[in-house]
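Problem statement: downstream parser choked on a complex file, so we are re-checking the raw output for the beta-D-glucopyranose run. The parser issue turned out to be on our end (a line-ending mismatch), but while we're here, posting the original submission so the record is complete.
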Amino acid sequence: MKILTDSGFDNSKIVEFGNKYLTGNGYLGCRGTLDEFKKTECVGINVAGVYDGVAGKWRENINAFNPLYLALFCGESALDARGENVLSHEVSLDLYSGIFTRKTVFGVGEAEVTLISSRFLSSAHRTQICSRTCISANADLQLLLKVAVDPDVWELNGPHYKGVNCECGENFMRVSARTQEADIPVSVECRYSTPINAVSSDFSGEINLSLYAGETFTLDRVANVVVGGDSPVWQSYDEALGEHLAAWRAMWDKCGVETEGDERADFALAYSIYHLLILAPKGEYSIAARGLSGQTYKGAVFWDTEIFMLPFYLATLPECAKNLVEYRIKTLPEAVKKAEHYGYGGAFYAWESQNGADACTDFNVTDVFTHRPVRTYFKDKQVHISADVAYAVLLYYSRTGDDELMLGGGLETVLMCAEFGRTYSYYNHIKKRYEILDVIGPDEYHERVNNNAFTNYAFYKIATEGVACAERLKNKFPREYAAIIARLPENIVENLRGWAEKLYLPAPNKDGVIEQFDGYFSLEDISVDGVRARLVNPREYWGGSGGVATATRVIKQADVIMIFNLFPDLFPLGIQRANYEFYEKYTEHGSSLSRCSYALTACRTGKSAGAYADFLSSAEIDLNGGGKQWAGEVYIGGTHPAASGGAWLTAVTGFGGLSFEGSVPKVSPRLPENIKGMRFKAYDGKNYRDFSVTQGEKK
Ligand code: BGC
């Protein structure tokens, strides 16, 4: 059993707990807020893959109407966790079943009223939200319960609904509307196990409750969030619970990692896996950078999914990995259009993708001094996204051997991503090599740099592996291959082969360090703290044209290190270690993707203490309310699923040392001192294999 709990109510933690106690089913997310909360407390029923934009504002994914609103009254007084009559309050989240429970005891005169409310988002039926509320008292009392499907939705860039219509019957309440932009119908209907009286003035339903001492009143609510052509599934709470629990058991059976000797690490790892499970996609959409915790980052999909999360799903729930890869294959036409728009060939994926459409704006930052929008170039120049997408397709294929997927768009995606790199590059006639100029690497504080090592190596690898893959498929499926190639730019395979041979790959210097980009070594040599001390305003943006880090060696996140994480065999461990030692001290870890990236290289290079510390800080980020939550008036917080994926990667591939040669697994454990042993399963493309590693040996 693994249960997360917090006791006592703290008003200042409402937003943090919304993330910490998030529940989800891969399609819907429900923030860990309480029944009586409304949009001011950032209640959110977040929907994956459904976006809406309002003129002049950022397009973002939608939050649906909240079917879980419930407020309890005794006479004039509200029995509310924020009130003064609270005797005790506790929230809990069962990591093995995805069930969130709150228990609050209120004092009403001499009497005590206990409210226990549990909820889950069905893992068996993606539209379903279920809740059971139990109310009891130690004296006879007359209570009033108000329930609603709350039409007043918390939104960052709304309003996203038009024509909101509320209906109410004896046992149900329904709110329906259409999204502003694409006119998508959204309706949330909740059915109640006890009849309700509709109150039209505040659109709620009331239940008058005569509660006798020692008796428990139970209200079950089963709701469906129906978007577009989805079909609702109506079941009793108990039936729904049974199916939900069976689905969670099946997931944990495949995904669980047991560690021995270190309870803190064990719990944090289970919590990370929990977050990945509540995001496991149930359809052809992908995972947003803040998961299902809200609309931050516009609900868009970044490289976070392919590089930090996909490996988990590939090793545990391969059908979800397939969904993620198919999302990119399906959105290839948008990427081709984007490349064309900038005058290049191939496929340039959106840095921030909303069903393939580019969500990234030209001005992603506002200057804190002038309040003017700052031109940022993530959209135009973070070209490594195409290499990341191709890497993911190749990784999926090497593990699963799924020829059908490769022939059905996978090969095309890989080759077109490489083709984009080729057409984006420039031939240096003096040095007789191709160079990739004017890009942003993973470190976003240095924009528009030349020959970012990560970008060059990533394109090199996907081009060479893409060409090798094309050759294999040509021999195996000549007819299908010919049809694919006929659709692609002429001589694409030959061109890529020739290009990769001449692509500039920055070599390690005499100290073994690879320069992050041309001229990086000449930047000011100052520590992260030194740069931080120069901030005039704590909310200043460190990068861009005039940021405090721009002219220095201080970087936002792991960059060169990512070469070794993606391609561990490219460089000997000595080189990897030298780069870890050199770059770590300049890294601010201003992105939640950073610590786990260093942890992975630390594992390979024998830096066990560093690996363990960075693992914990990734795994615990949402337990501790880590990461930035607000930027001025704008909420930028949410959960950090890439860090959860990175924590799993560190545990299983770092500490456990699991690696695959194609689909053949091997383990070479590098357990940190206090983790004595570890057991996990991993899918090798055909079967699940059991692994057990202990300090100093492997089985
Ligand atoms: C990071 C990116 C990341 C994005 C979404 C940014 O702060 O620099 O690497 O993809 O957040 O998590």
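For whoever reads this later: The two ends are 26 Å apart (CA to CA).
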